[in-house]
Amino acid sequence: MESDIESFIIRQRIILNDIAYIIRQLLPKESRGLKNPRGKTHPLNKEMRIKEIIDYVEQNKTNFKELYEILEKNKNWILKMREQRDGIVHYKSKVILLEDELNVSFIILDAAGTLEFESMNNGERRIISTPVFEFINTQTKSLWNFLNADLKKWLEEYIKDKNMKYIEISKGSEIICAGVSLFREINKIR
Questions:
Q1: Cβ-contact 105, 128 below 8 angstroms
Q2: Of the candidates 76, 89, 71, 74, which has an alpha carbon nearest to the alpha carbon of residue 11?
Q3: Residues 6+ positions from 186 with CB-CB distance below 8 Å
């Protein structure tokens, strides 16, 4: 389960970078200060980092007001996911499971051994852990809302506003895969 949580965090970051790549493709190529996707590979395999899009839009919020509002609304969970992924991939952080009779939770322990603590009523301190189900569900719901509500609306309006040509290739744009119906039921998503 520890490896599954680490993989989940890494996969979420990959999805966010894929979203950044798509956003970059829609913005004007001559956007000053915003680099194009990079990498010594086929042009369609290049990467764009979500943080680069966030930084650029923050610096140009008057030109991209709606996109700025969407990124600002989602910024906390996006940057937290980025930080966790970077810790796992680059800085030897590791997910450690904690289990009691009722819950399975986890902490992310970095190489320096730094942890977050909270004070208890009796004066003791305890490690702040994250319940596994709550984490996976909250992160997935955040991504769902980001893609299927916030970005979808912005993309539709942006494409129309810029008179971009497009071809509809499917009916509906929501995420579909195994487990989505249960996820929707749990979160009361229609």
A1: no
A2: 89
A3: 137
Rg (CA), the chain: 19
Quote the pTM value. Answer: 0.80
Sequence letter at residue 128:
I
Q: Give long-range contacts, CB 8 A cutoff, 24+ apart: 129-138.
A: 129/98, 129/105, 130/105, 130/106, 131/103, 131/104, 131/105, 132/1, 132/5, 132/97, 132/103, 132/104, 132/105, 132/106, 133/104, 135/5, 135/106, 136/5, 136/8, 137/183, 137/186, 137/187, 138/77
Instruction: Extract the tokens encoding 124.
Output: 């003791």
pLDDT digits 0-9 by tens, 95-145: 999 998 888 999 888 888 777 888 888 888 888 888 999 999 999 999 988
